[in-house]
Amino acid sequence: MNNILTQIGIENYIFLCVTLFCIGIFGVLYRRNAIIVFMSIEIMLNAVNLLFVAFSTYHQDAQGQVFVFFSMAVAAAEVAVGLAILVSIFRNIGSISIDNLKNLKG
Amino acid sequence: MAMDTNLALVLLLTPFLGFLINVFFGKSLGKSVSGIVGTLSVVISFIVTVSFFLQINQTKQAITIQLFDWIQISNFNVSFGFLLDQLSVLWLLFVTGIGSLIHLYSISYMHDDEKIHSFFAYLNLFIFFMITLVVGSNLLVMFIGWEGVGLCSYLLIGFWYKNQDYNDAAKKAFIMNRIGDLGLLIGIFILGGLFSTLDFASLQTAIAGAHNVDTLWLSIAALALFIGACGKSAQIPLYTWLPDAMAGPTPVSALIHAATMVTAGIFMVSRMHFLFDLTPEIQTIIAVIGGVTSFVAATIGLVQNDIKKVLAYSTVSQLGLMFLALGFGAYEVAIFHVITHAFFKACLFLGSGSVIHGLHGEQDMRKMGGLKKAMPITFWTMLISSLAISGVPLFSGFFSKDEILMTAFHHNIPLWVVGSIASIMTAFYMFRLMFLTFFNDFRGTEEQKHHLHESPALITFPLIVLAILATIGGAISLPGNSWLNEYLAPLFTKAASEEHGLGTTEYILMAIAVVGGLVGIGIAYAKYIKQNTVPNEDAEITGFSKVLYNKYYVDEIYDSLFVAPVNSLSKFFRDYVETGISSLVFGLGKVTNELSFQGKKLQNGSVGLYLFAFVLGMCAIVSFLFLAQ
Amino acid sequence: MNVSLILIILLFGALVTYLAGDKLASKVALFFGLAAAGCSIVLLNHFNLGENISYISQWITSPKVSFALKADGLSLAMVLLTTVLTSIIILSSFGNDFKNSKAIYSLILFMSFAMTGTFLASDGLLYYIFWELSLIPIYFIALIWGNGDAEERKKAVVKFFIYTLAGSLFMLVAFVYMYQKAGSFLIEDLYKLDLTVNEQKWIFTAFFLAYAIKIPLIPFHTWQANVYQKAPTLGTMLLSGIMLKMGLYSLIRWQLPLTPLAAKEYMYIFIGVGIAGVIYGSIVALRQKDLKKLLAYSSLAHVGLIAAGTYALNLDGFRGAVLQMIAHGFVVVGLFFAAEIIYRRYETRIISEMGGIRSQSPKFTSMFLILVLASVALPTTFNFIGEFTVLYSLSQINIWFALLGGTTIILGAYYMLKMFQHVMLGETNTKVFAYVTFSEGLTMIIIIAVLFFFGLYPKPINDLITPSLEAILNTINKYN
């Protein structure tokens, strides 16, 4: 098992994860389309998941991988609910640009 | 003992019963019956008092009666208890005696008033409280009576309650009395705290045995008690209510504001003599205040034109003389004057009532005159009383006033001078009153002149009785052979030292006093009979007379010093401070509101902004975690 | 006998009253009020026989809260006051025609329930719950059945609600803190706590905020006059007669024994606050135009004196304070009721629009005068006993306190007699003053009888409260 880590090295995993995460952040901040924002959030989530797995291997501890399963399950549920909301919003106002979603204004 | 208890309860509760009957059934009983009930209840008390008096005069033993516990304080209990000794029985005698006469008088005097039953109810209640005041065996039971008579005085001054001026006078009397009452209470607190008892008998032993007590506290207590006495007995600086109290019906002025209630201060000081004896500096204050009051009131009395106001200031002045005597520790002398004063002043007030009655409510002496023929009994009785108050020899006032002045002379010459001058002025203004009212020609309207008549027997009978008493009353304490001093001897241990033989000095003093009185009468005669002067109309009074006529503007000064500031303070508090505090509280709410209003703007609904804030927050947390390590 | 029975009667009564419908509500409520009063008298009997009247059962396990009620003399006196006054208040409102009367009478009983609970609770959190619970009914009573402009009223009542609620939260914090230390909310455990002076000072302040707002002491009183004026008279009576006694009772029961060191350190300041309230309240009362507002400020003055007596931290102060609480409860209910009697006839509360009632109704005038005199503490009325004892206790600490506090007898006489003069005396009023009805007369006579009876013979109450006050004093003096 260890040979993958010895071949590539833990730092590279971390760099990848951070890069992915930052891409996610920029996506969230920059894009106006709710679905793309959503996808960006998924990227961030998966970046963390990857990190979990990498460290789990590094520490020889299966707990991290167990946690990833949980987080994937939660993410799946979240996607299901989130997309359903988006579909419903689209049906109502005919757009999913977050600039148009101002109903939460206090 | 049981017998005594029952009798004492009869003494106390009959007037109260009379009060209850008049309150609840007075209207249905009819005017005369209600008056008779009121009078009888006091007469019964009088009879019981006489029996007590005879008993005590014989046995010389004080009777104490304890009923039940009233107030529990951590270091002592106060119970309802009565003390019938020489002092209280003496007071009871003239309270119930003169009280009965005045009740009798009122039946006729108040007959046309539709609320006569409540009048008698209040009078009965007054007698009840006055008895409580006098017979209470401790300071607090006395305080019940003390406040109770103040209440009755309030009710009776404002008896004609439709007139708000009268109500103002009543209110003023009550409040000024309460200032004194606060003093009395403070005195009670100090004594209770120091000696753990309020009972007169125990206090006397405790104070006599108290050597380790700071005398400063005793002095403060004595001063506080004296302030109480000032309020009730109308001494400077709390005297201004008494002249105003003349708003009440005349029998009230006679009973409450001349003969009985206003002497409560003297009673209390005599009761607490063991305290005052130990505080000479307070005694000096009492003597000085008494002397000054006597003088100041007499000067005001010189120029008053309302017949009752003259008598009111005369009362204040006479009370001042009594305090003058008290200040020298001559309690029995003061008490002697209390008694004689009760006779002649009650007679004078009732006589003035008779005059007012005859003139259908006229009280201004400038509109009287020449009443001698129409009202002979009133005239003669009032003349006798005026002679008595002026100190003409052989009338009662001569003996009592002379003793006061003599005592003053032996202790303090300046105060003797002040008292003597006050006496001369008394003689002057009393005869001014007599001459203006009864001599020369009638100055009222034709209508009034037509109706002039002597008052009915119910009114003249009390006058005659009182005039007789005012004549012979001096017999109870003749110089050199004083029954009164002997009677009171068990109470006042120092009494013996106050007795002076009748030497040359005394005769000279007596002569000075008599001559002074005659001079006063003579001046009045010269001015109002010979020259037939009539006092000026209000507007024409000028110079110092104007100051006197306006009572040295003391009322105005008090108004601007105390009443007005309190009222404007009240207005200031109400309009500014209240709103100020209130807006502080509201301000707190407003700040919260404003903050949330500003915070609300962040919630602008733009998901982009939320996301941005979310990322920013996350970065902040992450960097904080790193930095914290 | 189970002490919670009295609470059950009141709560059940509230329910039954609501179900009884508008017509019967007042009578049913009176019945349950009287039943509760009767029950408290039975309790009193049991207590006098030496029984230990308490009830405790586990309620919440974590945090450990128990449903603990305990009645000592002090609590019983207050419970008696609450139940008797509740009955009197219900009786007094027979002449009113309320909309939806089943709701208001039900709320009265509910409020009485909460207040009784406050007086009986011996568990801190339970006490706190009852304390807050009593706020809800009075909020609705004042808001829905009050008078005057609806907007103004809402403003005043909401202010009152939030203000007192906010104050109470500090108390909750103090309780939670003590719970952390003691592991229990039970009063016995809290009494045993050994807190440092510093902790005590914080807790003292927290309690003080809660109570000062409730009582109210200056300068936390600004809600009072407005709410008293705007609430229906019945609500005003509940507030002034009973509810403010909750605060005063709590000073004695909770604040002082829990924080004795702080109390001793601060006592002069807070006696000062109380006395300042006496003078300030009296002076403000002088120039009030509205009768109910005037009575509100007079109440402010009187509770100031009671609070001063409480902070005197001696037996006389405590005893006088409790006696005065009871006396004041009766007299203030009587006075507000008198204002209501006038309002029913003249439809005004402005003093200058009254006057000349005496010649129209001498009987009512006499009763009113007696209440006025009781309020200015004339001897032989109950109030005198209380005021005398309190002033005596203050004089033993410092004579100046007695002197300044004693100004109440002068200023009190001034504003009360001034009010009496302008309300009752003067030329006959042109408006008709209808006869005092049976229920009105009865209410007044009961109150007057109570005032005179205990004014002449206060021993029963004295004997009832003294042992428990001594016990509390012992707790306060435990560090000596």
UniProtKB/TrEMBL annotation, chain A:
Pfam families: Oxidored_q2 (PF00420)
Main location: membrane
Keywords: Cell membrane, Membrane, NAD, Oxidoreductase, Quinone, Translocase, Transmembrane, Transmembrane helix, Transport
Transmembrane segments: 12-30, 35-55, 67-90
GO cellular component: a single term: plasma membrane
An annotated Gene Ontology molecular function: quinone binding
GO biological process: ATP synthesis coupled electron transport
Keyword Repeat: no
Principal EC category: translocase
Entry EC number(s): 7.1.1.-
Membrane topology classification: Multi-pass membrane protein
Subcellular location: Cell membrane; Membrane
Domain of life: Bacteria
Reaction(s) this enzyme catalyzes, per UniProt: a quinone + NADH + 5 H(+)(in) = a quinol + NAD(+) + 4 H(+)(out)
NCBIfam families in the record: PRK05715.1-2, PRK05715.1-3, PRK05715.1-5
Function as written in the Swiss-Prot or TrEMBL entry: NDH-1 shuttles electrons from NADH, via FMN and iron-sulfur (Fe-S) centers, to quinones in the respiratory chain. The immediate electron acceptor for the enzyme in this species is believed to be ubiquinone. Couples the redox reaction to proton translocation (for every two electrons transferred, four hydrogen ions are translocated across the cytoplasmic membrane), and thus conserves the redox energy in a proton gradient.
Quaternary assembly: NDH-1 is composed of 14 different subunits. Subunits NuoA, H, J, K, L, M, N constitute the membrane sector of the complex.
Family to which this protein belongs: Belongs to the complex I subunit 4L family.
Name assigned to this protein: NADH-quinone oxidoreductase subunit K
Lineage, top ranks: Bacteria, Pseudomonadati, Bacteroidota, Flavobacteriia, Flavobacteriales
Automatic annotation (TrEMBL), chain C:
Membrane-spanning parts: 6-21, 28-47, 67-91, 103-122, 128-148, 160-180, 200-220, 232-254, 266-287, 294-313, 325-343, 364-385, 397-420, 432-457
Family annotation (Pfam families): Proton_antipo_M
Cell compartment(s), UniProt: Endomembrane system; Membrane
Molecular function terms, GO-annotated: NADH dehydrogenase (ubiquinone) activity; NADH dehydrogenase activity; ubiquinone binding
Gene Ontology cellular component annotations, sorted alphabetically: endomembrane system; membrane
Membrane topology type: Multi-pass membrane protein
Keywords associated with the record: Membrane, Transmembrane, Transmembrane helix
Domain named NADH:quinone oxidoreductase/Mrp antiporter transmembrane: residues: 122-407
Biological processes per GO annotation: ATP synthesis coupled electron transport; electron transport coupled proton transport
NCBIfam families in UniProt: NDH_I_M
Entry's family note: Belongs to the complex I subunit 4 family.
Record protein name field: NADH-quinone oxidoreductase subunit M
